[in-house]
Design a protein that fits this description.
Chain lengths: 409, 213, 274
């Protein structure tokens, strides 16, 4: 009987317990309903200033992150940056910074028609809003401003480049003046350059023409300009020896300049009547069509000498090998580092990189050009001295010297 | 006028382009972008000069029945056919429809592309013939070139048994260390050469491109 | 008739026959895939033409021949006109006309971007360039040339000073004593792995000395004798190793180009491979 009573009381007690539990659960969930996101602390020390060394239309903001960012309440999701033309608004959102960030670059467009246009010399006001998981819960910083964006007239990040440009100009002008005053400037032998004269002589003896390829650069490429100077010297010798000259051109402006150069050389040599404008002609501005045509010239005209001076790309090996098959003496010069190995392998003489630019001084032996060559050598010596200083400063931890040479784009 | 004005123009524009690099202001940038745009537009007029030269040289060969004159006719045929298609049979020459013209695209796809790709593929043969001629190791320099080339060419070859991994590491070291050093030396020299030549052009010392009166 | 001429005629006849056989077979091949007759004939012709032009160029490896000459001259004419058309429509009509004339913009059916008087400058300079064709006033073209040459000379001067000179000098600042913590530490970390102290230091020394000797090789104003000569010699050795490595590096890439063309011939034209 007693056992039955206990069982009945237990049976009655269980629902009561369950009911109680539900009420506890209910009480807990009501507790959950009442938990709200607490507004975080706003950012502090907000400053805004014009971005330096640019064309304008950009302002930099910096701040101390919220005390609740990664610490305190740890409820910061990120920051939104707001801008207005007046301190009282209305503010428009300009961008978002992640939690932990302490700066933002507000960069606008310089095009008036653009939706993102940001005018210079206009007062802007900024505030930074600290964001949480709840959109309606945030904290705004103080409004800072007015701040204006404007372009600078000198990019101070590029001072090292300016020093080098002025320094090199000064050295070059000094050496050129020294050369003009009659100073004897020694230059060592360059096999490739000496071979040019021999090659022209060989072509004359064989009664075959010389093929001169200016490369695939435009008339404004420095390698092509250097090639024009060499072409001028070659053309003058060719005019004196009455040898044939073939100059197929890739670029129409190059053709124009090459015609002027060759014509001037023939006039210098006292043979203006021997000049034929069809010596220098345009082929096509398609890389491999040009190569196909030059290959055809090599195999049909069988030039005694092929001279390749200028900018070359993948076609360099095709040209050089075809010329070798045709039995021509080949002299090449390019500043395209990727193509130099092919010219070294396939040609009789190769001017490597800087030697192409030195060639004009070598061929003419004009004091002014020799002076500039000397200036280049001094610059190279300076490079070596700077490299040694760099090595020393690295090991003593003097990073400033190394930092000077990191020029931003 | 004939020489002094062009030299002055070279100087003015050359110096401006140097100065504009240091002046980030919008006005400098605006002039810079204009100048670059102008160069592209002038290039189109130069192209007309080039086409005229090609037509004249080809027609001369045909007219005077010079050697291989028939092929100059082929050149002229290809040139004029492409122009007609490019301007959409001269019917719709106002719009760039010509570039979408069926024959224009097919000439490009079935003449230009195959020949271009085949010319490029000839490099496989030429690289072999160049290697055969060059790798005879007649001098120390040729030997160095040959050995370095062989190591790099064979670096992924598994048939060298136990030395294959060392071959690969050596090739990798060659490409990353001495290769880098030499290229840096060449690039520094080239950079100086370009700067010096550009300065000579701007200062009027280098003036071969202007020709003579 | 000479033997060589007879052979040339037989070869030519063979080529013509082969061309037509290929055209017909490709046409029937395209037709069997459901393509209409007209399109099959057209595509059959084009594939056959592409294949024959490919073979014509490859025949150059044997020797210069009429087929190569034909392909070469056709390529020159077609490509010259191609770039002329593209240049005209993209630069002249696309970039220039919309900024100088609303009438011409309407005529060429391109959106007018508003009149910009500064775009008359390249027009004038371009016309000056065309005066090259006249012997009397051809000298006027020098003004256009001067503009182009001067502008790009200034641009290149700065570009190469920054990228090819200053940046490269800056990259030469390598630590020659890598994480030097004493001889004991060095020898305890002595290994040939790529991250090992020895290999890193060796690499940095080779780079440093290689750059030095390479630059010395390019010195023009001093005779290469004595110490200078020895350093210059070391420089050219390193240059030759570089050229050999670059050569070896590109071999496989070049061979893959040939594989591409052979795939076209054997798959797209002859249908011998899937």
């Amino acid at each position: 009987m007693r056992q039955k009573l206990i069982i009945i009381m237990c049976l009655l007690f269980i629902p009561a317990l369950a009911a109680g539990q539900e009420s506890v659960i209910t009480a807990d969930s009501s507790l959950v309903d009442t938990i709200t996101v607490v507004p975080p602390a706003p950012v502090t020390d907000l400053i805004a200033y014009d971005k330096n060394n640019d064309h304008g239309h950009a302002i930099i903001l910096k701040w101390t992150p919220s005390a609740d960012d990664g610490a305190g309440k740890k409820n910061v999701l990120g920051y939104s940056i707001h801008r207005s033309l007046s301190p009282n608004g209305p503010f428009e959102e300009r961008g978002i910074a992640a939690a932990g960030d302490a700066s933002y670059n507000d960069v606008g467009s310089k095009e008036r028609e653009s939706a993102d246009y940001m005018a210079d010399h206009v007062d802007y006001y900024y505030k930074v809003r600290t964001l949480t998981a709840d959109e309606s819960v945030y904290a705004d910083s103080e409004v800072v401003g007015p701040v204006q964006s404007y372009g600078q007239w000198f990019n101070t990040d590029r001072w090292m480049v300016l020093i080098f440009v002025i320094g090199f100009m000064a050295i070059m002008i000094f050496m050129i003046n020294k050369a003009r005053r009659g100073a004897k400037l020694f230059v060592r032998r360059l096999a490739g350059i000496e071979a040019v004269d021999e090659a022209i002589g060989r072509a004359t003896e064989m009664g075959k023409p010389i093929l001169y390829v200016l490369g695939l650069g435009t008339a404004a490429e420095i390698a092509t300009i250097a090639s024009f100077t060499i072409l001028g010297r070659v053309a003058k010798k060719v005019a004196e020896y009455q040898t044939g000259l073939i100059v197929p051109c890739y670029d129409p402006i190059v053709m124009t300049v090459a015609q002027e150069t060759v014509k001037a050389s023939y006039m210098d040599a006292g043979r203006p009547d021997s000049y034929d404008e069809d010596m220098v002609y345009f082929v096509t501005q398609s890389q491999f069509a040009y190569v196909a045509a030059v290959n055809g010239v090599m195999l049909r005209e069988l030039p005694a000498t092929n001279i390749y001076m200028g900018k070359f790309f993948a076609e360099s090996l095709i040209l050089a090998e075809t010329g070798a098959l045709a039995g021509s003496i080949q002299i090449a010069g390019t500043d395209e580092i990727a193509q130099i190995p092919f010219f070294v392998v396939a040609c009789d003489y190769t001017l490597i990189g800087e030697e192409l630019y030195a060639a004009s001084a070598y061929l003419g032996r004009e004091p002014v050009l020799l002076g500039s060559l000397k200036a280049q050598d001094y610059a190279k010596a300076a490079v070596m001295v700077i490299a040694v200083i760099g090595f020393i400063t690295i090991h003593f931890g003097w990073d400033t010297f190394v930092e000077w040479f990191h020029v931003a784009n | 006028m004939k020489r002094q004005l062009p030299l002055a123009l070279v100087f003015i524009f050359g110096i401006f382009m140097i100065i504009q690099y240091f002046v980030p202001h919008e006005s400098s940038e605006w002039v810079f972008e204009f100048l670059l745009d102008w160069i592209y537009i002038i290039g189109i007029f130069a192209l007309a000069l080039g086409i005229w030269s090609l037509i004249r040289v080809s027609w001369d060969k045909v007219k005077y029945r010079k050697e291989n004159w028939f092929y100059s006719l082929v050149t002229l045929f290809g040139l004029f056919a492409m122009i007609v298609f490019g301007f959409d049979y001269l019917r719709n020459f106002q719009t760039a429809e010509g570039l979408q013209n069926f024959m224009f695209r097919h000439f490009f796809d079935y003449i230009m592309i195959p020949i271009q790709a085949t010319m490029f593929s000839l490099l496989a043969f030429f690289i072999a013939s160049a290697a055969y001629r060059a790798f005879r190791a007649r001098s120390l320099l040729a030997t160095l070139l040959l050995v370095a080339a062989l190591i790099v060419m064979l670096r992924f070859n598994p048939y060298f048994g136990p030395i294959s991994p060392y071959l690969e590491k050596t090739a990798s070291w060659l490409l990353n260390v001495p290769n880098l050093a030499a290229k840096r030396a060449i690039v520094i020299g080239v950079g100086l050469g370009i700067v010096a030549t550009a300065l000579k052009v701007i200062l009027g010392i280098e003036r071969a491109y202007l020709g003579k009166d | 008739m000479e033997n060589s001429k007879k052979i040339s005629i037989i070869v030519f006849a063979g080529v013509i026959v082969l061309f037509f056989v290929s055209w017909i077979s490709k046409t029937s091949g395209f037709q069997s895939t459901g393509l209409p007759f007209g399109a099959s004939v057209r595509d059959g012709f084009l594939i056959t033409l592409a294949a024959f032009l490919t073979l014509a160029i490859i025949s150059f490896l044997y020797k210069d021949n009429p087929y190569y000459k034909f392909a070469e001259h056709l390529f020159v004419g077609v490509s010259a006109a191609y770039w002329m058309c593209v240049g005209f429509w993209s630069t002249f009509v696309g970039n220039f006309i919309p900024k100088v004339s609303s009438t011409l913009s309407g005529f060429f059916e391109v959106p007018y971007k508003g009149f910009d008087i500064f775009y008359f400058v390249p027009l004038i300079l371009g016309i000056m360039l065309l005066m090259r064709l006249s012997s009397k006033v051809g000298w006027v073209s020098r003004w256009s040339l001067a503009f182009i040459v001067g502008t790009t000379a200034g641009l290149n001067l700065i570009r190469y000073m920054r990228s090819d000179f200053i940046s490269q000098v800056s990259n030469t600042f390598v630590p020659l004593l890598v994480e030097w913590q004493g001889t004991g530490h060095f020898f305890s970390n002595f290994n040939l792995s790529i991250s090992g102290q020895f290999v890193m230091m060796l690499g940095n020394w080779v780079i440093f000395i290689g750059v030095f000797c390479g630059i010395i090789y390019f010195f023009f104003s001093k005779e290469h004798t004595g110490f200078f000569g020895a350093a210059s010699k070391l420089g050219i050795w390193i240059l030759m190793v570089t050229f050999g490595a670059s050569f070896g590096y590109t071999v496989m890439g070049r061979v893959s180009l040939l594989v591409g063309r052979l795939t076209f011939l054997f798959r797209d034209w002859l249908g011998l491979i899937n």
